[in-house]
């Protein structure tokens, strides 16, 4: 059976405020607002969300030009001390579909505005989806990662 593989997404909202440039580190103190699109949603879409401490946000790396997309291996952040790893073994922004996923603290819900802290998306970023963080969706059992990833993330949040 042949299917259409095209996926079309309509942003549900946009990031307002926070950083203007995508700097790699120190995202934890950054506050921003995720504003839902009033043409698509009213306040009922966010009912009950204020009971959660954190959100998972799916967004589009809209400032990455298509010609900068990576599909092979590279050294994260160009660091020669780290190994070459494939694009799917890292969380860089130059991904094939330019999708970002971030977990951030929900500070407040005000109408269609969500005030958040620690969202690693810049002002103007299209938001594609958001979900409340629930502990049960976290990893079950021990987790593992290479030393370079721990070093890379040391100052990220």
Give an overview in words.
The chain is mainly β. It has one domain (13-136, 143-153): Elongation Factor Tu (Ef-tu), domain 3. The protein is built from one helix and eight strands. The chain has a six-stranded antiparallel β-barrel. The termini are far apart. The relative contact order is 0.29. The model has no long low-confidence stretch (mean pLDDT 95).
Main sheet overview: 6 strands, antiparallel, barrel
Low-confidence stretches: none
**SSE ordering:** EEEEEEEEH
Q: What's the overall average pLDDT, rounded?
A: 95
Helix content: under 10%
Compute the number of strand runs: 8
- CATH architect. name: Beta Barrel
Determine and state the CATH class: Mainly Beta
The end-to-end distance, rounded to whole angstroms, is: 45 Å
Number of helices: 1
As an assembly, this protein is single chain
Structural class estimated from helices and strands: mainly beta
Strand content: 25-35%
Biggest sheet, strands in spatial order? 1-2-7-6-3-8
Could you give me the name of the CATH homologous superfamily? YaeB-like
Label the overall shape: globular
Number of structural domains: 1
Q: Write down the Rg.
A: 17 Å
